[in-house]
Amino acid sequence: MQLRAPAILIASRPHGETAAIARLLTSEHGLVAGYVAGGRGRQLRPVMIPGNLVEVELRAKSDSQLPFAKIELVQSRGPWLTEPLPAAAIAWTCALTASALPERNAYPALYEALAALLDAVCHAPSARGWLPALVAYETLLLRELGYGGARPDMTGDPTVLIAAFDRLEAPLARYLLADKRGDVMAARNLLRERLARIMS
C-alpha cells in the first residue's frame, strides 16, 4: 500500500512513548489508519488534532501491515478548540465519523460534506450558521451507510433545527454506534447541552 492524498484527521491515539496512531478520512481511499512516528512530540502535536486538514503519505509493505504515515498540516482547527461550542462540534463530528465508517471504503460525498461542515463550524459567526450543515452531515452519513433518512427541514428557525438534530440521535445511536454508544454519544450530548445554552 502506498498513497499520498489530502485528508481530514479524525482521530489520534497514543502508541508507545512518542508515537501515535492516526485515523484519517480521504476522498478516494476512505478511512485509513497509519503509524505516526513522533506523533506525540512537540513538533507534531499541533498537527495531530482531530479536524485538521492534512496531507498524508502512507507506506506499507503489505495490506495486512499498519502503514507508516507522514503527515503535513494544511489547515489547523486548533484556534477553535478554545471556544466551547465549536470545540464540541468538531469533537462530535470527528468521533462519529471515526466510529461509524468502515476502513478503506471510499465515501467522497462524506469527505466533501465533512470538510465543508468543519469550515462552517470554524468560520460561521454563530451556531445558526453551521447547525444546518451538521444536521445534513448526520443525515448523509446514515444514508451513505444504508440506513435511509429523510432530508430534514433546513429553515433558519433555531427551534426547527434543534428538533431535527434531536430526531437524529436515536438512529445514530441504534444503527451506527450500537456497540460504542456510550463514549461517542457523550460527545454529542455535550454538544447538545452547549447548543441549548446558546440558542435558547
UniProtKB/TrEMBL annotation:
Q: Which Pfam families match?
A: RecO_C (PF02565), RecO_N (PF11967)
Q: Which domain of life is it from?
A: Bacteria
**What cellular-component terms does GO give this entry?**
bacterial nucleoid
- InterPro entries for the chain: DNA_rep/recomb_RecO_N, NA-bd_OB-fold, RecO, RecO_C
UniProt keyword annotations, A-Z: DNA damage, DNA recombination, DNA repair
| Boundaries of every DNA replication/recombination mediator RecO N-terminal domain copy | 1-76
GO BP terms: namely:
DNA recombination; double-strand break repair
Family of the protein in this entry: Belongs to the RecO family.
Xref: NCBIfam families? reco (TIGR00613)
* Name the UniProt record assigns to this protein: DNA repair protein RecO
* The organism of origin for this protein: Altererythrobacter xiamenensis
